[in-house]
Amino acid sequence: MEQKPSRDNAPGVGAYAALHADATALLAGWTPTGAAAGRARDRTLDLLTGGPAALSREHRAGHVTASALVLDATGERILLCLHGKFHRWVQLGGHCEPGDRTLAGAALREAGEESGIAGLVVDPVPIDVDIHPVACQGGSLHHDVRFAVFAPADATERVSDESEALGWFPPDRLPEPLAGGTAQLVAPALAALRRRAG
Length: 198
Description:
26% of the residues lie in helices and 24% in strands. The termini are far apart. The chain has 4 helices and 8 strands, in the order H-H-E-E-E-E-H-E-E-E-E-H. A hairpin with a 5-residue loop joins strand 6 and strand 7. The protein has a single domain, classed as Nucleoside Triphosphate Pyrophosphohydrolase, CATH 3.90.79.10. It has helices at residues 17-28, 35-48, 103-115, 186-197; strands at 63-71, 78-83, 89-90, 92-95, 121-122, 128-134, 140-150, 163-169. By secondary structure, it is of the alpha+beta class.
């Protein structure tokens, strides 16, 4: 008979060991894209000193998540989803899973699952870190590490169970209502695209 995991001692946390090592090294070596991102990075590194449990959604004090701002091949369009729970347009992303080995890989997995697009490519350097309250575990914090992800020229999106709609938008004309923190991802994501092209 399968035993249900206890939320108190978070069994299976060892499955996040590699991801914890990656997240700690990545954020410790990252140059923040702004003052708020720097403060959020420092708070997230403090959270990570508690060990791999900080990557699990069971960690009520807060947990690290990964998200992706998806750009088309030209940088002229950004893919956002209308989130099914809070009914705002937002970048793709979500909780880390035990099989994730890197935060960039977690962001790429989430982007693929939520967009249905094959052939996405992630820039491994974060474009932002943001901390915001969520309803997980009756109230928690997401320490969201955000990445730029690039879609192939022939990308065709498919709505997932987690969103009401997907849409491509010009970077200077994002839709409303827009989730807080999404607009600030545009400039660093476009910079990442230029670095990739250069």
